[in-house]
Amino acid sequence: MNASHWNNGRFYNPNASAPLRSFWDLLHWLCHRQPGPWPEWIPSSPGPKPPERVREGELRVTFIGHATVLVQMDGKNFLTDPIWSHRASPFSWIGPKRHRAPGLRFEDIPPIDAILLSHDHYDHMDTPTLLRLRAAHRPRILCSLGIGRRLQKLGFDAPDELDWWQSLEFAPALRIHCTPAQHFSGRAPWDRNRTLWCSWLIESRHGNVYFGGDTGLGPHFAEIARRYPPPRFALLPIGAFRPEWLMGPVHMSPDHALHAHRILGARASAGIHYGTFRLADDGRAEAVDRLRALVAQSPMPEDFWILKEGIGRDVFPNEQRHCAQEMMAWLPRRAGDEMR
After folding, report:
1. What does the alpha-carbon distance between residue 45 and residue 105 come to, in Å, rounded to a whole number?
2. Right CATH number for 61-331 from 3.60.15.10, 3.40.50.300, 1.20.140.10, 3.40.50.150?
3. Does the predicted model carry a pTM greater than 0.90?
4. Which of 206, 273, 323, 327 is 20 to 30 A from 149, alpha carbon to alpha carbon?
5. For residue 142, which phi and psi values (nearest 5 degrees)?
6. What are 201-254's pLDDT values in tens digits?
């Protein structure tokens, strides 16, 4: 275990860009909230059934909702922080509830080879969904330190538990790296920061994919950029950011996500962690509207996408990819009609 982020039985954020707020700050916010608008329910239709696999060199992403994304690359299928439950809670009758259905029906997801868990908060580590996935797909599951024993209690055999900067060979052409995030953990008041939080990077010779999980903007992005080539695609959280004085250390705003996109040098990025659960004071469309405005006002072209729930997108066809990686790795391009 790396002592740089572990002390006296708890994990912490080394060199955080801002300190996490106290209980009294949280109480002040709860007493003076100014929440933006959310509809009770957003009608939607599930997206089409994805292909069972994509070929080597191909990359397809399907935004299912919140931080749940189906990543299909090099013949393998990954799910990030899967949640199909109605509430992000240990209870069915209380806790943050969905304001829209998942973008894909559970029965339409293709065979899942691996699940990437960023941390143990209920909106990212949903027990009922994990049990359904175990029964239907028997996936390999990758998690950060301390979460493995909880997964074993759910019946997952030998989950892959990694510390920051550790990695494993997932397939002959794929290596998965556990990378840092700036956040916190806990599923009850007494277990705060007993498990580690993280982000993930899937390394492929055809281009890497980065999943930011749940994080504030911090120095870890520069360190990730120093250690790895610019990602072919990055999934970056943009929601649950207001009030920024409280949420900023642990949740990126759209401004921060765009800055992280530039630091990483991502060929393209897409926003996640918005529009499904009401977790902070930003309105349902606030993160998307703000990101659109930032991209439109940017003095340089930006390739930062807002993906429609349930609609799979191919990321840079093969005939464009190698040229794009070599020539544009450090110059993101404008999304234009990618923004919806």
Report:
1. 10
2. 3.60.15.10
3. yes
4. 273
5. -115, 135
6. 999 999 999 999 999 999 999 999 999 999 999 999 999 999 999 999 999 999
